[in-house]
Amino acid sequence: MKNKILVSFILFVGFTLQMDAQRDFRGSCHPNKKERIKDGIKSGELTRPEVRQLAHQNKNLHRAKKHALADGKITKAEKRQLRKLKKQQNRNLYHQKHDGQRRRF
Questions:
Q1: Could you give the angle at the alpha carbon of 104 between the alpha carbons of 103 and 105, nearest 5°?
Q2: What are the sequence ranges of the domains in the chain?
Q3: Around Cβ 29, how many Cβ atoms within 10 Å?
Q4: For residue 40, what are the contacts with CB-CB under 8 A and spacing of at least 6?
Q5: 33 burial class (0-12, 13-18, 19+ CB within 10 angstroms)?
Q6: What is the SS3 assignment for 40-79?
Q7: What would the pLDDT profile of 21-61 be if each residue is shown by its tens digit?
Q8: What is the overall mean pLDDT for the chain?
């Protein structure tokens, strides 16, 4: 009986540690938007007007999120809207970084 409890405890701890490791790995593969913008500025892939536009879009997303939280709860429709805005921003950031325009230092 003690062996079964010990084995199940070890398996539980092992699976828990494995899930945490996977979560950390996924987080490090996809840096957040601010880091991606900083990298684009350093490499010269983003011009000043592009950075301004991306910052404005980020401000609009935060404003929309704040507005959605104003009543204390985010509904499914609001979640969908916020997710759509975030995906649109990520797509726009990717296109701005890969559009061939270079910033001159």
A1: 115
A2: 1-30, 32-105
A3: 7
A4: 46, 51, 93, 96, 97
A5: middle
A6: HHHHCCCCHHHHHHHHHHHHHHHHHHHHHHHHCCCCHHHH
A7: 544 444 445 568 889 888 988 989 999 999 999 999 999 99
A8: 83
Amino acid at 82: L
Q: What percent of the chain has pLDDT over 90?
A: 48
Residue 81's identity, in one-letter code, is: Q
104: left (phi over 0), alpha (psi -120 to 50) or beta: beta
**59, 64, 73, 81 from 35: Cα distances, Å:** 16, 22, 29, 24
Token pair for residue 33?
């938007």
